[in-house]
Fold each of these.
Amino acid sequence: MRLIDIGVNLMNSAFDGDREEQILKAKKAGVGPLIITGSSLEQSRAALDFARVHGLYATAGVHPHNARYWNKESAALIRSMALPGGPAAGTGTAAGGTETGAGGTGTAAAGTEAADAGAVAGAAGTATADAGAIALGECGLDYDRDYSPRAEQRRCFEEQVKLAAELKLPLFLHVRSSPRGGSAWEDFFGILKTYRRDLTRMVVHCFTGSAGELEGCLELDAYIGITGWVCDERRGRHLWPLLGRIPAKRLLLETDAPYLLPPSLSPGGRRGRNESANLVYIAGFIAQKLGKTVETLAEETFKNTVEFFNLKIARTGENPSGF
Ligand SMILES: [Zn+2]
């Protein structure tokens, strides 16, 4: 059984102490390759560097929380990250110049097995050595936290949607409404509908919406990303009957780690750090709700993921991470 985590915030500081080890731990659990979520220009660049060295994949985009930092250079920077061989931070070599590359082990190339595997992947010139970001995002609207003014969120989102249409890249989308009013979903659907004709694929990541909102996503022919949110009896129960309404060909699985640790994996009720390896548990939970085996679910979602992101493992049979 093999799963791909379509959304892990691996550049988050929660992983500063063991970023490389996370890859191995996931691999041992049957999860990989990992797709690192880019949520700001800086993080996207770091994610791309790290992914290239370690045979992983990364998205590039600006999360609605960071929309207020969007400026007239942002689109060009994302465009450059999305093109194969495009400039990442530092030198673009395996040593990469990122703070994260050196994490804990002295040098990027020494010490951990993961670093070795990455070096091999890089040396072999396989998938990610000079790859660009495989999707645009995480982008969208978040009227729940409102960390950026809503008008700026809409502008930042629309610019990235336009870019995805131009570059013919899939979109990794985030949307969260607020109990205080103003429907993020309405604005979200409005922007996507305007450009839908020119867009390829899109995934509404960490879907937590209603039956009607799910319907709206499926009308746009969007994929649906389900996280461990669904495992939360309190917050996720409304999603259980909706799982069966997602066509098997449109379902994708993710952890959104380090966020959203399933409650049953948090001893004593204290929310700890989530990890990609936990995707096995999340998949098992979803499979049970769907009345299918976890192996079947893994097979279906693996295929969906490869198709959605157009991953090189599908085209060549090569596997940069050695999975
Ligand atoms: Zn999100």
Note: The radius of gyration is 18 Å.
Amino acid sequence: MLLSSLILLSGLSFATAACSPTEEPANTEEPTPAPEPEPTPEPQPGNGHTLVVYFSCTNTTKGIAERIAEITDGALHRIVPETPYTSEDLNYNNSSSRANREQNDPAARPAISSKIENFSDYDVVFLGYPIWWGKAPKIIHTFLESLNLSGKTIVPFCTSHSSGIGSSDIDLHESAEKAAWKKGKRFNGNESAGTIKDWIESMNLNLNQNSNVGVFNLSKGENGKAPTVRLSSGYDMPIVGLGTYSLHGDVCVNSVKAALASGFRKIDTAHMYDNEEEVGQGVRESGVPREEIFVATKLYPNQFSNPEAAIEECLRKLDIGYIDLMLLHHPGTDDVKAYKAMEKYVAQGKIRSIGLSNYYIKEMTEFLPQVNIKPVLVQNEIHPYYQEKGIVEYMHSQGIVVEAWYPLGGRGHTAALLGNETISKIANAHGKSSAQVILRWDLQRGVVVIPGSSNPDHIKENISIFDFELTDEEMSQIAALDRNEKHDWY
Ligand SMILES: NC(=O)c1ccc[n+]([C@@H]2O[C@H](COP(=O)([O-])OP(=O)(O)OC[C@H]3O[C@@H](n4cnc5c(N)ncnc54)[C@H](OP(=O)(O)O)[C@@H]3O)[C@@H](O)[C@H]2O)c1
Ligand SMILES: Cc1cc2nc3c(=O)[nH]c(=O)nc-3n(C[C@H](O)[C@H](O)[C@H](O)COP(=O)(O)O)c2cc1C
């Protein structure tokens, strides 16, 4: 890397090496104490949604931004310059290099080619940049001036060779007077997650760290590798899983193994499916390390009166050490009692996360005040003919992940859904199958999917949905297919 080799070779300070005569020396071994920022407007109480925006030429700031996004569960956005910076552009020894010229020109505003989706949804914006001669690169001003920042809280951070954040963060305020600014902080490229976490916590930002349960980072997915969503328990769960309802014996074992071989890392079973033993066997025989696999099971209402015995039975049948996620299959007598038993198993580490299935707004509203651990997820019937729009919105507003059972309509109904004219047309336009379009539609609306299949080709197809994207228009066309048509009684 040009810059690091120069630093190593020359051992010169940035100030001597790079500043033009008009500049103040920027280099300090210790971070420069920054003057206190001017009082800025307090943001309105908001949703705590977090965005981590950064500019980075040699990926040092990128690394810190990724750690912040991981800690805050925030969305990540890289500022991409319309004209990328070459090594020569960044040469701080050359007084006429592009970076030098830009930093010395108060009017310079390098153009940005990247765009942020739904910027208005975010309350807290972490803003990262490298220090260039003691300042933020001018592209950060371009960024700030291009957006409506009113009501946002901005938290600047930077990386540098040795300079502190100095006044670079204060200078930015002029470009975004309507935002509330936090004092910025400089990090080393190799700063530990612990230090970054302490800093974030010290600011009391009131982040809603589970506010993004309904927005998946699909760009992180690859065919055969689904991204994860962070549950309110702190565990990450893949957003595509294999459903195993009606799979038994070797068919079930082989389907689980085929799914894991195709890259699935989540399997959904239940006491009621009578296949927990086969699911456990498939997991153990797959060759995939246990800790990489996320297994969900469910207690049936006829087990609620004696939940400890039921949980022990699940643990014994699955025989995979711990259960990643246990749900109550339906509301029913003693459901709170059963849930509280699951809470005890969470405390013992035998179950990692707990949630519900077939609970709607009324059931959930009544249930929540009675329990201590908030359900991380609700699993309900959801497909294009039964979309549960209001319910999805409500659950997401509660930080509860929504998962679709019968995503393809369920056995006996798949032909009608897969043959639907609108869906088929969209599928043809993308060179994908109708099943893939439906599953992708779910993910783009923030709904986790667990399609059931015993066909290895279908299994592979169902996790190959990360190489295309439905347009807003196509999403709306599928949304319009909703006809409140339930395919099962619960
Ligand atoms: N919580 C609850 O109350 C509840 C209720 C029902 C289901 N569930 C869960 O949700 C999961 C999903 O539901 P489900 O399996 O019943 O129904 P589903 O996923 O909507 O549909 C499964 C059917 O679709 C077919 N299929 C799968 N992938 C396909 C593809 N790419 N192209 C064409 N056909 C395809 C399967 O046949 P092939 O085998 O031939 O691929 C199977 O017949 C269940 O397995 C279960 O884990 C939960
Ligand atoms: C044009 C330019 C000017 C720089 N000026 C300084 C400086 O004044 N003080 C300093 O400590 N580091 C300076 N650096 C080093 C960068 O701030 C540091 O390498 C930073 O971590 C790079 O971040 P990035 O990899 O995200 O682009 C400069 C680097 C460049 C390219």
Note: The first strand starts at residue 50 and ends at 54.
